[in-house]
Amino acid sequence: MTLLSQLRADLADHAGKSLIRRRRTLDTPCGPHAVVDGRQMLAFCSNDYLGLAAHPTLSAAIAEGAARWGAGAGASHLVSGHYAVHERLEARLAEFTGCERALVFSTGYMVNMGIAAALLGRGDAIFADRLNHASLVDGALLSRAEHHRYAHGDTAALSRLLAGSTARRKLIVTDSVFSMDGDIAPLAELLALAEAHDAWLLVDDAHGFGVLGPQGRGALAAAGLAHWRLLLVGTLGKAAGLSGAFVAGHADVIEWLMQTMRTYIFTTGAPPALAHALLTAIDLIERGDALRATLAAHQQQLRGTLRLVQWQRMPSTTPIQPVKIGDNAAAVAAAAALWDDGLWVPAIRPPTVPPGTARLRISLSAAHTEHDVSRLTNALHRIEATP
Known about the structure:
This protein has 387 residues and is α/β, with parallel strands linked by helices. It folds into 2 domains: 21-50 and 289-385, Aspartate Aminotransferase, domain 1, CATH 3.90.1150; 56-286, Aspartate Aminotransferase, domain 2 (3-Layer(aba) Sandwich). The protein has 14 helices and 14 strands.
């Protein structure tokens, strides 16, 4: 069998397991009401939790940034691609998150791919929640440290692993809000374990930043946690409505990461125009209590009105509201039925989630309306009841 024929066979195997993914093409800006593949749709699949992605103030800010700073950075940050506006953004993010210093990246995947390898190596150990994002898993593998995975949210199991480890250096790694379940990690318990076992604690707050905590400062602020052991990762393409990511923490730790992270050193800096617009995005998040209140009302409405019999709405107090179906093909069929009704809700299957837990992943936004949520719940009731 040739390489190409083997590849075709593997694709056919994926198709037989209902694992083929299809891209949809939008003809309108990001928002709940969109034209997708030529159809008018009501979307519940974006991470634009505060509805900022198409906010006119942000659109004006990025245009203003391009006029002031041009289109690109031209080089890596450590060569000649670091601009005054990058410096201002990092200072603003540090202040906003209550950390001493922050470092900005082009994507969250780049942050998570590089941190573990900068802090650890052979002879060290990583302790990771089994449901962590793929970028955290890949970053752990790149570090060459021992990689221990504990059952989701099981701090007792983590405690046993830490107690039995003889590694020189230890790193506990977790999502704050788990992107496919919508639940929140036991952050206070994790920090207590990090202190007890002299470990770093890396928290990926991709889905908490902008949504949780006072003024949207994130999951750590919501839990009232601050410590030099903490490394906070936040992404800027979800609640912030734009693109990019950052890591924040103790000044000495951030300096070390800047000096050693390959994903920072060996890549072109993000466009300064984007940094200019992100300063406005942070202001909008800080003043966004009304948006967060609307988002919370949508979550409460969905939890209060969705009454499922065969499927299961998974417990979540965040904008991610998954409905577990189980079977891959059944989840795909449910998503297709919703699509036929004009509702865009993605079917999530392995390897994104464990086998047997395929689901519909509902993402709520402050840009949705009460009527939008009612339309979704009515459609879910009708489709679940249809043989």
